[in-house]
């Protein structure tokens, strides 16, 4: 048994390759078949570590009767949202228009012309508890499609739906144009966002709003930068409390390290157990930057442990980073991660096991469905001395159950991890982190680029679709982080090339901003332009960051013009709810408050031109600075006392040259 997914490389598509549903991958073959056979298309979008995708697969797609109905009346198409974010974005907007919400699995019904007429998310196999069953939906749609009048009605509904989504977008753009900014917004938007975050802050348990609580580390990075610039400790406290609570809670894996997707409760105790590369990369950045500002060793320890998790469990043989680990094992969410009290006593012994259980809040009663999620919400210290016990439990855990690993390599997510490790290297001076970042970057260049063109990702070195805006924006940022960590001009030059290609492919010259899909991508029924930051920063906000930093580092006016235009465009988009645009606001703050500029002239006598010498200088310098390394004297920059010399300019004032590292900026 098999279907048309057999030859695919996506782990998500391969999960469905042996099902009785005659799945097709997205492409002309499926839609040509629908046209020839006059059938509607059922489009199912998800990803390989999605819990409810697994549930619907077991209940419906492995159900022979439902499969027969799909195969007889529909052409069924599977899409991995992580490989085709363009398809996901287009039909998610439709789903949200129809239902008021969205999520995965996403279930959409299309005409053979790819126009949607009905959408939803998870459906149970049969109607129950007031929720229409998937089988009943299939029958109703099939019956209507089988008559000419019904087919006309559904086709008309599809076109009306696309018109409605288009009108909504046009109305939003018209509203945005009314508040369009000719100049980047000043401090007002950033201050308003801080007020919104403060109003929604959970004083007792950290985070913002009620359950579920998502990490959104880019918002925490914005708050940390705002606190540094404004010198307002109360703003830093919003991020500090949240970071501490997440580290103490069950959202952090105290046995194997790394963070789960989000917390299902207010306390950060019970997570949704899947682990995503992008969450861990962004959180690594947030904990590292928070440590540099506060000196809190808990934050540094968390950053190191998060890196250890990724490098141990999410890294391939050529330095590439894999995408995700599943929440489910043996068909049960969280089974891999939870513990029985007696189980731990048996493994660690009565004395050490008892101490371990008391420290991590593990009881005979349990804190999650009769089992235990280790946590430190009881206030116990993170420096616990249980290293050997954790190793023993980690080894046992791996032997008792297995997690599915999504081992595809995504360019944008790898870029985030490259940036995170570059920051961690600058903070710690540990060369291993920089080596890992550079190795991953070399993988991207070898397998995921073609000149200046990027690809979404690959698996077994087989590339997927051509890249979208996010690939270019995130990779450009990663190259800038590497430049800031090493001082190597090649990274800066490559960042300029990648961002230049992004401008060529994705820029909306008429209305401003950048489309998600560009000149190299497939044309869909709509052309999305995403500006709102969700679980990850939008490609538009990361492009703003890249353009600002390129301008500040190089001084080139072309970058300054592009940065100013992008910040002005996003200022209008963020006007209504600035707290939803944290990465843009971070970029805006960097633009309004340029980093101090430090020019370093290295001296051979200091050993700074030997292997790793430049990097040794870089890692000793402050994070919040624009660094330039000169390996020999120039007319404007000479050595002082024959030693490595630092020239610092800040707030339009240049300080006298010094042989001391400026570490207090």
What layout of secondary structure does this protein have?
Layout: H1 11-15, E1 23-25, H2 28-37, E2 41-46, H3 51-61, H4 64-73, E3 75-80, H5 85-99, E4 106-110, E5 116-120, H6 134-145, H7 148-178, H8 187-199, H9 217-230, H10 233-248, E6 262-263, E7 271-272, E8 275-276, H11 277-294, H12 297-313, E9 324-325, E10 328-329, E11 332-333, H13 341-348, H14 350-359, H15 387-400, E12 405-406, E13 409-410, H16 411-428, H17 431-447, E14 449-450, E15 453-454, E16 457-459, E17 462-463, H18 469-486, H19 489-506, H20 539-554, H21 557-574, H22 582-592, E18 597-601, H23 613-620, E19 626-630, E20 645-650, E21 653-654
Helix pairs in contact: 4-6, 5-7, 8-22, 9-10, 9-11, 9-22, 11-12, 11-16, 13-14, 16-17, 16-18, 17-18, 18-19, 18-20, 19-20, 20-21, 20-22
State which percent range the strand residues make up: 5-15%
Shape summary: globular
Number of strands: 21
Structural class: alpha+beta
Strand order of the largest sheet: 1-3-2-4-5
The CATH architecture designation of the domain at 11-170 is: 3-Layer(aba) Sandwich
CATH superfamily of the domain at 11-170: Glutaredoxin
How far apart are the termini?
A: 65 Å
Oligomeric description of these chains: single chain
Give the helix level as a range of percent. Answer: 40-55%
> What's the rounded overall pLDDT mean?
92
Taking the sheet with the most strands, its summary is:
5 strands, mixed
CATH class of the domain at 11-170: Alpha Beta
Low-pLDDT ranges: 607-611
Cα-atom radius of gyration: 26 Å
Number of helices: 23
CATH overall fold name of the domain at 11-170: Glutaredoxin
């Amino acid at each position: 048994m098999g279907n048309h997914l057999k030859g695919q490389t996506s782990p998500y598509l391969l999960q469905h390759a042996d099902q009785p549903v005659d799945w097709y991958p997205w492409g002309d073959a499926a839609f040509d078949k629908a046209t020839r056979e006059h059938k509607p298309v059922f489009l199912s979008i998800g990803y390989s570590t999605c819990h409810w995708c697994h549930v619907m697969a077991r209940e419906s797609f492995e159900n022979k009767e439902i499969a027969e109905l799909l195969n007889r009346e529909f052409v069924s198409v599977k899409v991995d949202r992580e490989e085709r974010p363009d398809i996901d974005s287009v039909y998610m907007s439709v789903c949200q228009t129809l239902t008021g919400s969205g999520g995965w699995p996403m279930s959409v019904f299309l005409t053979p012309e790819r126009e949607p007429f009905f959408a939803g998310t998870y459906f149970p196999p049969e109607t129950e508890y007031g929720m229409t069953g998937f089988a009943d939906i299939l029958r109703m749609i099939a019956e209507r499609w089988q008559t000419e009048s019904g087919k006309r009605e559904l086709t008309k509904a599809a076109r009306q739906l696309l018109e409605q989504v288009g009108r909504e977008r046009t109305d939003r753009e018209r509203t945005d144009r009314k508040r369009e900014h000719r100049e980047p917004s000043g401090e007002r938007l950033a201050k308003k966002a801080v007020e919104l975050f403060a109003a929604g802050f959970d004083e007792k348990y950290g985070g913002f709003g009620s359950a579920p609580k998502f990490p959104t580390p880019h918002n925490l990075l914005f708050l940390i930068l705002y606190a540094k610039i404004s010198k307002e400790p109360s703003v830093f406290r919003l991020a500090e409390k949240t970071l501490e609570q997440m580290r103490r809670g069950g959202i952090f894996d105290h046995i194997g390290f790394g963070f789960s997707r989000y917390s299902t409760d207010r306390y950060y105790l019970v997570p949704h157990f899947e682990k995503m590369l992008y969450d861990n990369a962004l959180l690594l950045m947030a904990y590292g930057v928070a440590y540099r500002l506060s000196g809190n060793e808990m934050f540094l320890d968390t950053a190191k442990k998060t890196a250890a998790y990724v490098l141990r469990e999410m890294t391939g043989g050529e330095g590439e980073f894999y995408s995700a680990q599943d929440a489910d094992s043996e068909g049960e969410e969280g089974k891999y991660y939870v513990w029985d009290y007696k189980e731990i006593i048996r493994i660690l012994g009565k004395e050490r096991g008892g101490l371990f259980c008391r420290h991590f809040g593990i009881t005979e009663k349990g804190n999650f469905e009769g089992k235990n999620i280790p946590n430190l919400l009881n206030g116990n210290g993170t420096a616990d001395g249980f290293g050997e016990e954790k190793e023993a439990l980690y080894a046992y855990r791996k032997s008792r159950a297995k997690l599915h690993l999504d081992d595809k390599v995504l360019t944008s997510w790898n870029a985030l991890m490259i940036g995170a490790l570059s920051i961690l290297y600058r903070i710690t001076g540990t060369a291993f982190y920089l080596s890992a970042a550079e190795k991953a970057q070399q993988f991207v260049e070898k397998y995921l680029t073609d000149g200046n063109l990027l690809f979404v990702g690959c698996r077994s070195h087989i590339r997927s679709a051509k890249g979208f805006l996010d690939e270019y924006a995130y990779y450009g940022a990663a190259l800038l982080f590497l430049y800031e960590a090493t001082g190597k001009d090649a990274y800066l030059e490559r960042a300029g090339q990648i961002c230049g290609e992004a401008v060529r492919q994705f820029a909306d010259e008429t209305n401003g901003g950048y489309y998600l899909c560009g000149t190299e991508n497939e044309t869909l029924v709509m052309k999305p332009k995403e500006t709102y930051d969700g679980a990850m920063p939008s490609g538009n906000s990361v492009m703003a960051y890249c353009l600002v930093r390129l301008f500040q580092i190089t001084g080139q006016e072309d970058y300054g013009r592009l940065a100013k235009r992008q910040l002005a465009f996003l200022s209008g988009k963020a006007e209504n709810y600035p707290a939803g645009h944290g990465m843009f606001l971070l970029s805006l703050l960097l633009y309004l408050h340029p980093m101090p500029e430090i020019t370093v002239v290295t001296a051979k006598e200091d050993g700074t031109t030997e292997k790793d010498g430049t990097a040794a200088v870089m890692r000793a310098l402050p994070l919040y600075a624009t660094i330039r390394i000169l390996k020999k004297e120039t007319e404007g920059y000479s050595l002082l006392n024959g030693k490595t010399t630092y020239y610092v300019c800040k707030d339009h004032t240049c300080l006298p040259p010094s042989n001391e590292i400026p570490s207090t900026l």
